[in-house]
Amino acid sequence: MTSRYGLATGSSRLGEALSHDVYARGRTLIGVNTHLHPQTTETPRPTGDRAPPDAGAGRSSPGPAVALPPGPSHALKRVFLGPALPTAQLKHERLGKPTALAVFASDNLSSVAYATEEILKVAVPAVGVLAFSVLMPVTFAILGVLAILLFSYRQTIKAYPSAGGAYIVTKDNFGLLTAQLAGVALLTDYVLTVSVSVAAGVAAITSAAPGLFGYRVWLSVVFIWLIAWGNLRGVRESGRLFAVPTYFFIVMMFVLLGTGMARALAGDLHPLPLPADVVDTTGAIGLFLILHAFASGGAAVTGVEAISNGVPAFKPPEWLNARTTLMWMGSLLGVMFLGLSFLAMKLQVAPTETTTVISEVARAVFGTGAFGTALYLALQVATTLILILAANTSFADFPRLANFHARDHFMPRPLTKRGHRLVFSNGVIGLAIASTLLVVVFRADVHRLIPLYAIGVFTSFTLSQAGMARRHLRLREPGWRHGLAINGLGALTTAVVTVVIAITKFAHGAWAVMVFVPVMVWILVRMNHQYNREHAELEEGLEAFDHHAAGRSTSVLLVDDLDRKTMHALQYAQTIRSGTTTAVHVEGDPIDDERLAAAWDRLESDMPLRILPNEGDASATIAAYAEQLPGNGDVTVIVPGPARMSRLERLRRGRTGARLARDLAPNPRVRVTLVRDHPEPHPAAGRSDGRLFPRPIHRVVVLVDRPDRAAMQAVRYALALGVEEVVAVHAAVDPDEQEQLISSWMDLRVPIALDLVECWDRDVARSVERYVVDLMAPDTEVTVVLPRRDFARFTQRLLHDRTSRGIARALGRYEHVDVAVVPYFFARHRPPTAPPWGDRTPMGAGGVRAG
Questions:
Q1: How far is CA 843 from CA 103, 486, 567, 621, in A?
Q2: pTM beyond cutoff 0.85
Q3: In Å, how far are 35, 574, 723, 726 from 41, measured between CA atoms?
Q4: Mean pLDDT, all residues of the chain
Q5: Smallest Cα–Cα separation from 469: which of 182, 169, 180, 176?
Q6: Phi/psi of residue 732, each to 5°?
Q7: Residue 160, Ramachandran bin (φ over 0: left; ψ between -120 and 50: alpha; else beta)
Q8: CB distance 242 to 103 below 8 Å
Q9: 106, 129, 333, 343 from 264: Cα distances, Å
């Protein structure tokens, strides 16, 4: 639905509050600024033949045109992800406490499966049997850190109920630059969490089925993308999908711990036989060994921060439900971790390359009977599922955190876009790709990945808790001393743990993370500087629109042959109201050129045909011709195109078009309009003289995503076409951006109406397509003016999405709908180019050969 109230408009389905505000703005504008309505610009009469007044002059009612079905990519989305969720559904995509525990706690709870094992993998090779005397003290130390973190993050969630992750807290208390360090460290840890948890889950599978060990990498990759698929289906969908395995693991762990404790109290739990190499190993327990074991087991507390990052995903009251879920998670983790370490110590389980500690403990506790074997297999299945699905926590939080970075212009802007199912799809896909690379490089080896793990999350712990301590000192709210004591202790403790992990794991791979994080921060800062430069060039100092500066444009029609597509393009060239229009042909075969000139003469068109000498490259020749055209107004290069193309033809024409666009790019005056052929009667069919008449009605739509110099340049070009009806259209996706756009549009006093088109599924191309189809009629030509911000470097183009190209593809399917691209080039200076020819000599009545 689209509605228009003078300058600022809104859709009634965008949300009641927003619509009322937009309509109120529109009514005020009508009463105050009626001179800014469309059709206030005087339209000069165009040159060339015009249709008689009774041939459809005036505004016609829209025809019965309907939007064509979307392409195959949309159908694939529906099949694999389900139907698109409306933006208004976002507030209903909230999680209750039980489901939120499954979504956000799976990472934290899954660490039970390997934290005890990582302690023993450090201690057993160093001191042999004495390692089991170290296990419980190290476990208690880790649980002490867990308790400190739980109470610290309770403070954080209450202070930042909208989102209390390390990035937001650090940004609020230490500034944007320090926040990048916290954010990058946490993003790195999320990638490692996916890699480690999936690799550990596959290790549980190969522990029960050793024959699959050789396929562990491929299994890991498959599981990563299955979890990514689940998350692309939506937050609630993934919560329901992954809740059952999480609670299944919790139940099986308590069955294991209950059975083990009962047998231990009954004196029926005896140590397992130790391998000979473990028995023969002797050594002294030193401080470094204890610290190293503590650093490896510290993986148990990773994931504590996940709930604070995802507070907005909870049902109201968000902060209270998040704090409750946090304590549930911490209590479950503490009991399971402590119980498993105790059983491992009691049984003296030594880790091996092919079997996990939790697997050996389960075999010993459940026994070898039929029922015991069934319980063992059930626990292995539950462990495998929780380890693999622990990656779901990262998939829930990584896209949110990347969105925060991108909104502050430190990461690519596409990361702020919600996808088909209201999740940040680009973040989900990016995380899946990064995790896949890690799993492949490290061959899905948990022990090789663990040294990279934890240092990033403990760095973010430290910055988050230090930020909270500074907040208490800065605001001094009621109870600030109590909060300062908790968060100060948390900052100090996690800082010590970070240093310990850095020292003990440095040679084992932690150095890579310690180098990677600062490098990534530097890259993000560079990215931010680039965005700031773009903002300064596009928006700073933007003055009110001067509609008197919109001069008449010059049109250049490219003619290869006088076929159907050229005739349609010729009709379009006569429909627009340019100051001068010239047809241009780059010479080829002399006989074909003479035949083309003769056919052009028979058209009796007022438009001259110029044949340019080919200097070896047709695109360069056209660009040089456009460069030397007099005046300083816009130059519209009209490119005829076929309605349908084969894949081979599309590839060939795509390369030719790219070459033409590259050669025309240095000229800031050039705007390229693609006019496609249509499967309808020839434009001159039924006329004995073969002459063409322009279409009686021409409507121009300017697409606007934000009010900057690129958009104003496109508006100025649209007005220069001399059309009676020009309207600006914005696909309404983000309410905040809409409000800013409406306010800026009024401040800039742009002399055309602004329509807000509902974009309920965030598919901008489809929403624009539906809007344009509503304007189509049998006697109407619709030109869609597309502002395109072009960048000199490929790395700059990566920072922006390709929505404009999707719009152009969608509209290219309709007859008499033409796309005019108005490029805005950033800081591109071009040397003067001389035309590769001299004086022109006439060639016949209708054609001119330049040479």
A1: 75, 89, 21, 19
A2: no
A3: 10, 20, 9, 10
A4: 80
A5: 169
A6: -80, 110
A7: beta
A8: yes
A9: 29, 20, 21, 8
Closest CA to 83 of 459, 420, 488, 522: 420
Report yes or no: 623 and 664 within 8 Å, Cβ to Cβ.
yes
Whether residue 271 is preceded by a cis peptide bond, meaning omega within 30 degrees of 0, is: no
**Secondary structure (H, E, C), 614-659:** CCCCHHHHHHHHHHCCCCCCCEEEEEEECCCCCHHHHHHHHHHHHH
Kindly give, in sequence order, each residue whose CB lies less than 8 Å from that of residue 641, ignoring residues fewer than 6 positions away. Answer: 565, 653, 674, 675, 676, 677, 812
Determine the longest span between alpha carbons in the chain, in angstroms. Answer: 112
Q: In whole angstroms, give the CA distance from residue 819 to residue 703.
A: 11
Using an 8 Å Cβ cutoff, are 306 and 105 in contact?
yes
Range from 28-42, 362-376, 444-458, 539-553 carrying the lowest mean pLDDT: 28-42
Q: What is the pLDDT of residues 293-334, one digit of tens each?
A: 888 888 788 888 888 878 888 888 888 999 999 999 999 999
791-825 pLDDT tens trace: 767 777 777 877 888 888 888 888 888 888 888 87
The half-sphere exposure of 601 on its side-chain side, counting CA atoms within 13 A, is: 13
Under a CB-based contact definition with an 8 Å cutoff, are residues 192 and 176 in contact?
Answer: no
* More reliable by pLDDT, 626 or 47: 626
With beta carbons less than 8 A apart as the criterion, state whether 189 and 453 touch: yes
- With tokens 């107004």, the residue in question is 633
Assigned token pair, 211: 């024959």
pLDDT given for residue 848 in this prediction = 41
Residue type for position 601: D
Amino acid at 267: G
Question: pLDDT tens digits, residue range 639-672?
Answer: 887 766 555 555 555 556 667 877 887 788 888 8
What is the CA angle 630-584-674, rounded to 5? 95
Is the pLDDT score of 21 beyond 60? no
Collect all residues with Cβ–Cβ distance below 8 Å to 201 and sequence separation of at least 6: 223, 383, 384, 385, 386, 387, 388, 389, 390
pLDDT tens by residue, 561-580: 888 888 888 888 888 878 88
Q: Which residues contact 423 (CB under 8 A, 6 or more apart)?
A: 231, 232, 234, 235, 399
Report whether 373 contacts 151 (CB < 8 A): no
Predicted local confidence at residue 16, as pLDDT: 35
Closest CA to 126 of 281, 295, 277: 281
Judge whether 700 and 785 are in contact, CB under 8 Å.
yes
Question: Per-residue pLDDT tens for 210-263?
Answer: 888 889 899 999 999 999 998 898 877 777 777 888 899 999 999 999 999 999
99: three-class secondary structure by DSSP: helix
| Contact of 821 with 667, CB cutoff 8 Å | no
**Amino acid found at 582:** T
Query: Whose CA is closest to 142, among 288, 296, 298, 287?
Result: 298
Q: Measure the CA–CA gap between 4 and 26, rounded to whole angstroms.
A: 8
